Amino acid sequence: MKLKSIFDFLDQHFKTLLLAYLAVQLLLVFIYPLEFKSDSAYYWKLAHDCLSNSTFYPAPMHLYEDYIVAPLYINILVAVLSIFNSKITIGILNIFLNFGQLYFVFRITEKIADNRTANIAAVIYIFYLSTLGLILFNLTELLFNLLIFASINFYLNKNSSSYFLAGILLAASIAVRPIGWALLAAYMIDQIVLKKNIKNYLNSSAVIASGILLFILLFGLFTYNNFGRFIFTSTTGSVNLIMGANDDATGAFNAKVFKPGKSGYILEPGGKTYMEKDEFWYGQARMWIESHPVKYISLFPLKLVHMFIWDDFSVHKILNFKNWNLYRIAKYLLIKKEDVEFLGPGHSLFSKISLIVLLIIQHFYYYSILLLFFGVIYFYRKSIFWKNGLRVLLLFIIFGVGIHLITVGDARYKYPYVISMIIIIAPAVKNFLENKKLKIDSI
User: Fold this and answer.
1) Do the beta carbons of residue 50 and residue 59 sit within 8 Å?
2) Domain limits of the chain?
3) Which sign, positive or negative, has the C-alpha torsion 15, 152, 214, 199?
4) What would you report as the CA-atom Rg of the chain, rounded to the nearest whole angstrom?
5) pLDDT given for residue 335 in this prediction
6) C-alpha count within 13 angstroms, C-beta hemisphere, residue 78
7) DSSP symbols for 335-394
């Protein structure tokens, strides 16, 4: 079957594909025991702290935590778990968030191009396995992306009420992850390009800002009433900064900096508030950067590598394996000369081989998205910036990645940008399938 015929078939059976996608997600959520570790377990713990004390997050008991993290997301967990306190609830919530994100990917692409292109973007999204694996975690990515792309969707309507709503949704994304500020920077640059005079620019920018400020004020007052402090976003900036600014920094997550004798070590941390820890880590990181500016900047390429070289941070969950990725498997097979038997005790040989094949397929798919994205950027660098909608997505990627370069790189962090890339490449894919030529000029 020719590639064009495949997409024609998918277009004709788009609703069936959506139902199948839903069925697969429900099957994964209900047949696999959901086990939360690392960040997933921490978010689960924070939500249950609040449930046990009939309060919201952050609560007074969290004053001496290392930081306040994703307050909007944790409070949503508190709300849904108060209805049905089970890990299955998180899985169901993730399915709703996933389909919400898919909807806005479709709508944004439709506004940028047309319905056929939106179908193609949705199909590319559905077969991107990192999203499917994410529904089995308890992480902020799905909610953050939903809010980001919902904001962009309304922003593209280019009217005052939509700008206001875009601002509210943008602020809500910041209440999940501070990287949402990158989208505000994208909006401001986009407004400069769109507006012909300073008055129009100030008017539209003020409407967006008013939406942002309203949400921050209301949510900040909500946390103040519950916690006694005006909190509207995570306070994880300093802890991430020091992980990327120390003698042992590798560009990725590295907890060595917090061990005794290292610059991030805090004696008796249980007796210090999150504010004191934040101030200490920021001061230590700043001193190191001022003393090692060249080394700090030299870590930027490594951070990009850690973000973009691999893309299987959640795929192992689809086959109910522990935290195995292609890099770890390759290291054991090629360097340590292990047999595949070392992979996942209790799993059959067929399951282990299936995992390796699935990870290879995922990387082939992911690298194809990357190559198409850079191809579009390279061949249409003179015109893509002037495409309404594509410009905002491209600026969001640029500013977002730029913020990560300041702190640390991690495979999970690129997730919003890959979804943005899917929207950007969809028009080129559509035109290639129709005209056998990679172009976006006919949008």
Assistant:
1) yes
2) 3-265+273-435
3) negative
4) 22
5) 77
6) 20
7) IS---GGGSSTT--HHHHHHHHHHHHHHHHHHHHHHHHHHHHHHHTTTTGGGSTTHHHHH
